[in-house]
Each structure stands twice: as structure tokens, then as C-alpha cells.
Amino acid sequence: MLDSILDTIGNTHLVQLPVLSSTSRKINVYGKIEYFNPGFSIKDRAALKMIESLEKTHDIKPGDTIVESTSGNTGHALAMICAKKGYNLVCIVDPKTPKQNILIYKAFGANVLVVEEMDENGSYQKVRIKTAKELSKKNGWINLDQYSNPGCWMANYEHTGKEIYQDLNGKIDVLVACVSTGGHLSGIAKFLIEHLTKKPLIVAVEPVGSVIFGGKPKPFKINGAGLSFVPKNYFSEYVDMELKCSDHNAFSMCRYIAKHEGILLGGSSGSVLSVISSLINKGGIVEGSNVVGVLPDSGLKYIDTIYNDGTYDD
């Protein structure tokens, strides 16, 4: 028996994906399925670590208010954790935030503030972050800043990377993950590089339209990845390849995996698996490799978009 729902965070399952693996070339593909976390995403890990770090230094107490820029899984994770621990939460969102996400935040008792102004790139991200910092300073609230808070990569260094290593007995040749806010890719990559005898191939994935790898910003539909700036938690020095994935390829892969593996995934997970499939087909992964894709969240939040006919075309 566990003491609380928070004790169920982590120790998610690594599942082999035969439909993407290559028997003839002895390439095995595995998915780290993070929707087994109670908040249905990998962000539960980072959110808990950020808050627990404040608790260890006595910089937060029950009744205090956390304010954070979020439009997706981080808000869900923080709202759940704050509800359990007795903290107040203000989520800074924008008009593109799915209504379902806002309802989830409110269900856990969080307050929601919508920003209407866009930044110079036509995105709301910088405005949301600026608003969260201004409110933190003005009201004495705590802004975690998931884009630069070291707790985000540390959570995945201490737990996610270690779990993958143990599940495959240290036999990992390729890691593929979205950058997102940088935390899970950087933390897992750092752990594997430090603990494996041979450095694995580290592949970073982002949507077409994200500027993390350079280029001009453009609209995209993939949730949970893609930024109009480069987050401090992205450790590009660990990365061997930076690849972008289109909405169409990501969403098509989500639907393919649902039909052939019985796994319902979100768009960022689809982009990871799409890149893995492309690398295997083009000979970018050597024979005999164990390939791990980090699959951040469930497709349940995207039933009316990704899994709705006609919504995933470019």
C-alpha cells in the first residue's frame, strides 16, 4: 500500500514495439511509456522534483502560491501535486490551450489566467513566461520556471535514465526524445552517457516550426514540444542529431501505433517514433541496436484532434 498518489510517480514501463523493430537487422525498438504516471505524462517527474527541492530548502510552505507558464502536461502535474500538498497554483495559459487542459487544472483547484498578447514570433510562450515572473515578483509567489529549473533534468537523471538503464541491463545504443523544455532529454542523456561504456547515439526531435534547432518559427499542431526560444535545460552538447518532424508524420504515426500496438499516444510521442522509423528505414541506425524512444504522454487528451479524421493533414 502507498501513502499517496504521488508515490506512483515514476517506474513506468519500457515496452518493446515490434511493429517498428527490424528482425532482419536485429534492431529492437522500445518505448518508455510515460502515461503510466498518475498525471498521464513525464512532467509528473519534473513537477514533483521542483517542488520537493523547495521543500528541502524550506522555501515553500502549505498555503503558498506557485505560478507557472503552462499549456499542457506541466500544469496538470503541478495542479495534482499542489492539491495533495496544500499549495495554491496559478496556471498562465493562452488562447491555444486546449479547453480540456484548463478544466483539468481547475478540477484540482488551480486558478487559470489567460494571456492574449503574442510575442514577436507569433507565439504566446514568451508572454506567458514574462507574465508568470511579473506576478511572482509582484505578489511574492513562487515561479518554478520549468524551462531553466535544474529540477527538471535532475528528476530524469536520477530516475528515468536509471530506469531505462536497468530495464535493458545497460544495453542502450540509441536514445530518441523530444526536447520540449529540455528536462527529460537532457537528464536521460546525461545519465546514459555517464554510465554506459560506449556513448549512445542521442537524437533530439522537435516539430517543424520550433526554433530550438534554428530556423524561422511557423505554426504547428503538436502539443508538448516546440518553443520559440532555446530553453536553458536543453544540453545540446549531449546531442548527436537534431531532427524535425511534421504534424502529419507525427499524427500518422500515433494512429499507426494505436492500430498495430494498442498504445494511444500524444503527438510528441508520435514524432519520436516517426523519427525512429525514418532512421531505421534510411539506414541511420546500425544493425544490432537497442533503440529507446521516450514517449511523454497519452493520446486521450487528443482524441478530438489527432484521432479525429481530417485533422492531422499538413
TrEMBL record:
Cofactor(s) of this protein: pyridoxal 5'-phosphate
One Pfam short name: PALP
Keyword presence, Kinase: no
Keyword Transmembrane helix: no
InterPro entries: Cys_Synth/Cystath_Beta-Synth, P-phosphate_BS, Ser/Thr_deHydtase_PyrdxlP-BS, TrpB-like_PALP, TrpB-like_PALP_sf
Enzyme Commission no: 2.5.1.47
Enzyme class: transferase
Reaction catalysed by this enzyme: O-acetyl-L-serine + hydrogen sulfide = L-cysteine + acetate
Keywords: Pyridoxal phosphate
Pathway: Amino-acid biosynthesis; L-cysteine biosynthesis; L-cysteine from L-serine: step 2/2
Recorded superkingdom: Bacteria
GO MF terms held by the record: cysteine synthase activity; pyridoxal phosphate binding
Annotated Tryptophan synthase beta chain-like PALP domain residues: 6-297
GO biological process, any: cysteine biosynthetic process from serine
PANTHER family linked to this entry: CYSTATHIONINE BETA-SYNTHASE (PTHR10314)
The protein's name in its UniProt record: cysteine synthase
Record organism: Spartinivicinus marinus
